[in-house]
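Methods — Computational structure assignment.
A single polypeptide chain was analysed. Its primary sequence is given first, followed by the predicted tertiary structure written as structure tokens.
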Amino acid sequence: MRKRIHCSALLLALAMSSACGDDGESGRSSATPTPECEDCDTPTPMATPVIENLSFNLVDLEFTRFSQFPFFCNVTDLGRVVAARMSRGNDGLYRFSLTVIEPTACPRSSPGGECRDRVEIPARVLSDEERQRIVDASRAVEILPEDPRCETGFGFALDLCVQMLRWTLAVGDAASIDRVTFTASDHPCAPSRLPAPEIDRFATLFAALR
């Protein structure tokens, strides 16, 4: 059974003074990925999924893929989103940047072939409707806690390729410099784990905003 965490509970936990609302903000402190384990995606009685509301005063949302060994993050699917970011500037405008897999010119050592590489799409200003789509997507994010087996060092393995989302929320109002950050990834033993459907949901949204 899922547990729903209300905005007011998160604000209390963070000692935030503002009330919850459409423009309020909530979140938890950053969670750092930990060593990988086997079968961690299978929820156990001690790993009940929760629903986080990360939409209140959302001023920055970043999606990245990383690895200690970049070769393992070598994605070649055309159109695949490998990085994205929405960020509020000092002018109050929200800008969006995207990095996707695109066809590229092949090096001279590989003439005549089809080459693909990461291509960064220039940042642009989001419309209010586009920004709202990202905010709405962050209203109910399913999070799994670290699997208890990982605490014992069960199934240590390399971080082949980790996909991470980081939400930055302003305390009080969007112009506030007081910020809190919530980080989650699909690393099997991360304290805050993102199920694969959540990664796919945000990647699909980012691709649609291109």
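Note: Residues 196-208 form the longest helix (13 residues).
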